[in-house]
């Protein structure tokens, strides 16, 4: 059988010349594009002057309001979740506090009974082990 052909050793000078030529091609074809715009997150009110149309200024102010102040009803399904963000009525909260403090009423639910039993079981198995 014939011996496989051995690779020539790497010529560092030749590799460097290829690298320089590649970089020069990239630099030749680069284009600097410069486009300046105002960022939408910046406050544009400092640009406006007193000579502006009052309706235009009012429209800018209305556009910057949160959705609950702009519209009477939610515009998207995502807005429906937090649209009515008023706190709970104090009457229910005060009744709950009055009953729990005065009569020491323990409001238990099915999930709390389950977790109470689960914690007791966990503590018992840890203490035995």
From TrEMBL:
InterPro entries: CFAP144 (IPR029214). It holds the Pfam family FAM183. Its main location: other. The chain crosses the membrane at residues 93-112. GO terms for cellular component: ciliary base; cytoskeleton. It is found in: Cell projection, Cilium; Cytoplasm, Cytoskeleton. Keywords: Cell projection, Cytoplasm, Cytoskeleton, Membrane, Transmembrane, Transmembrane helix. Belongs to the CFAP144 family. This is Family with sequence similarity 183 member A. It comes from Sinocyclocheilus rhinocerous.
